Amino acid sequence: MIHETAVVEKGAEVGSDVSIGPFSYVQSGATIGAGCSIGPHVTILSHTSVGDGTEVHSGAVLGDMPQDTGFENTDTFVKIGAKCIIREGVTVHRGTKEGTSTEIGDGCFLMAFSHFAHNVKLAPGVIVANGALLGGYVEVGEKVFISGNCVVHQFVKIGRVAMLGGACGVSKDVPPFCTVLPLHANEIVGLNVVGLRRAGLSPEERKQIKGAFRILYQSGLNVAQATGKIRDTFNSGPALEFCDFVESADRGICRLGGAESEQ
């Protein structure tokens, strides 16, 4: 199932039932799990592992060196999870410091021409649409949706089940469960209501998240006062997850802008 024009170097590990398309290149030191489908003109370089059942479409490049002038050609890695879909022209770069890695969790969907810089970490179930660009050390929580042509500054953290609207930019952390306003920078527009339901959060959990959101963004309290009130109001559950994220946001959090999507 390896096309005659594909190059798989000695020292590459290829699992069972793998297909590799025309003119693809798998370098020595790469690992491809069982049941993977590698399309044409794909490049999978050394220090890269691809999990079982992952699809890689034409022109993707996995495991190239980081675009970091401080990189010293040390052993760093790319780790792709199982059952991911990686579409045309996607680029995923290795970590930059010795022994570190860029990690794509299980079941992620990386759409065409999206880019994942060194040391990016995606939790399972993240969807990243066409042309989105994630800088170094960005961390993305479970089931986040990043829309097309979004740009995410290095070191930013995005909480789980958040959504970034199309062509937005974020240089501050995005709290979990929130939606970033399309075509704007660092502006929250409300909660990711549809995403919360799809993620299986119960009505009570969604009500709790809504309450925490209103305390943080609509009560007139500063961040420290708001997180204190959230802790006084809720004893457990996603409201405290929301609070924990805000309190640990080294870059600060996105502000509220525009009309809130849910009253």
- Oligomeric state of shown chains: single chain
The CATH architecture of the largest domain is 3 Solenoid
* CATH topology (level 3) name of the largest domain: UDP N-Acetylglucosamine Acyltransferase, domain 1
Strand arrangement in the largest pleated sheet = 3-6-9-12-15-18-21-24-26-27-28
Structural class: alpha/beta
CATH class of the largest domain: Mainly Beta
CATH superfamily of the largest domain: Hexapeptide repeat proteins
Strand content: 25-35%
Strand runs, count:
28
Largest sheet: 11 strands, mixed
Question: In words, what does this structure look like?
Answer:
This protein is of the alpha/beta class and 263 residues long. It has two domains: 7-137, UDP N-Acetylglucosamine Acyltransferase, domain 1 (3 Solenoid), CATH 2.160.10.10; 197-256, Udp N-acetylglucosamine O-acyltransferase, C-terminal domain (Udp N-acetylglucosamine O-acyltransferase, Domain 2, Up-down Bundle), CATH 1.20.1180.10. It has helices at residues 193-198, 203-218, 223-233, 238-247, and strands at residues 7-8, 13-14, 19-20, 25-26, 31-32, 37-38, 43-44, 48-50, 55-56, 61-64, 77-80, 85-86, 91-93, 101-104, 109-110, 115-116, 121-122, 127-128, 133-134, 139-140, 145-146, 151-152, 157-158, 163-164, 169-170, 178-180, 187-191, 255-256. An eleven-stranded mixed beta sheet has the order 3-6-9-12-15-18-21-24-26-27-28. It has a nine-stranded parallel beta sheet with strand order 1-4-7-10-13-16-19-22-25, with no helix packed on it. The chain has an eight-stranded parallel beta sheet with strand order 2-5-8-11-14-17-20-23, with no helix packed on it. Helix 2 (203-218) runs parallel beside helix 4 (238-247). The longest helix has 16 residues, at 203-218. It is elongated, with a radius of gyration of 20 Å. 46% of the residues are buried.
